[in-house]
Amino acid sequence: MSHFQLALLLGMTVALGPLALDAYLPAFPSIARDFAVPHASVGLTLSAYVATMGLAQLVGGPLSDRYGRRHILLFGLAVFAVASVMVAQTDGLSEMVFWRVVQGFGGAFCAVSVPAIVRDQVGGQDAARLFGLIGLIMFIAPAAAPGLGAAMLALGHWNWIFLVLAAYSIFLAVVLKLALFPRLKPRPRTFTPVKTLVTNYMLVLRHKTTMRFVGIQVLCFSSMMLFITHSSFIYQEWFGVSNSSFAMLFAANIVLMAVMNLANRPLLRRFTSVVLLRAQVLLQCAALLLLVTVVLFDGPFWAVAACFIAAIGCQGGIVPNNMANALEFFPHLGGTASAMLGASQFTIAGIVSAVSSSVSGEALLPIVASMLACSIGAVVLAWGGPKAVARELAVSSS
Hints:
Elements: H1 3-14, H2 16-22, H3 28-35, H4 39-67, H5 69-88, H6 93-121, H7 124-138, H8 140-155, H9 159-180, H10 194-206, H11 208-238, H12 243-267, H13 273-296, H14 301-313, H15 315-327, H16 334-359, H17 365-383, H18 385-397
Helix pairs in contact: 1-7, 1-9, 2-8, 3-4, 4-5, 4-6, 4-16, 5-6, 5-9, 6-16, 7-12, 7-15, 8-12, 11-15, 11-16, 11-17, 11-18, 12-14, 12-15, 13-14, 13-15, 13-17
């Protein structure tokens, strides 16, 4: 299977996560009205999904190492489809949160399988390029997701969004079963008792270089999750933009992510992925620093939107480079290492998102200041990244 074919199928799979996160964002005001709850409370349904996706990956990763990527991925899609249908039937916030938790469980088994499949096939700079190509393909989903949600709202009710998600997951299961798994080289299953499972996780936790990249992923993703959670409030409530304008503004973030991803691929021929990662994390921090300044001095809407787009767009280069480096040192424990990475980023980002929904209130400054704080932490970790990787490679080669 060519890298493009593999990236296309895996990109379609990874797209399930952004669709479940972003497609219903324009519906937040409608859901809040239907459930008679504050706008910010609807954000808890997003936080619950994200946090569950993180914790469940700790189970899904080792299971995929033991039983194979195929069984775990298809099981995850089945759970996701059922939960999506149930979310569409809910008539209260607590019930919706419950089924979003179940949906996150299925989504986690899908999310953890994709990086593990990549690591099964390639490593090093090739992995960074393949992750970049996957990211480029999957950018279509978050770019189109708010527009899809806005279209569903125009045609009917917000629950249609989740019925579409259920249909997509079923379609994806059929495509993967027929087009992906028969063409992958079989990977031997490994028996992983609890003692060994704990030992494997400890190997990842004790690997300082890997955990540095896990920390970068957590902080950068938390910054983006803060924006996603509050984007409807920021644009639709604070600045009063329409559903269609919100969809276009959200899509602009994804367009820049795609541009950054495209620019990253040729740069990998001249620079190592870890050097590019440090530059991109610094660029994101600069954009957020400017954003805080604009908000602090009550700047115009176009300046706020431009800063958000610049900051979120940097994720297009950060994610593929960081994932390749985080998984580089565990070629035989790809599922476990991927689970640690995914669990950390989703769980912590979900907690950060939930806390921000509870304490931010009706103010913009605390939201952007929290995003900047996360970014500064990522800069601190990324600054020493090249030296850490160089030392690790020197040790492994000697």
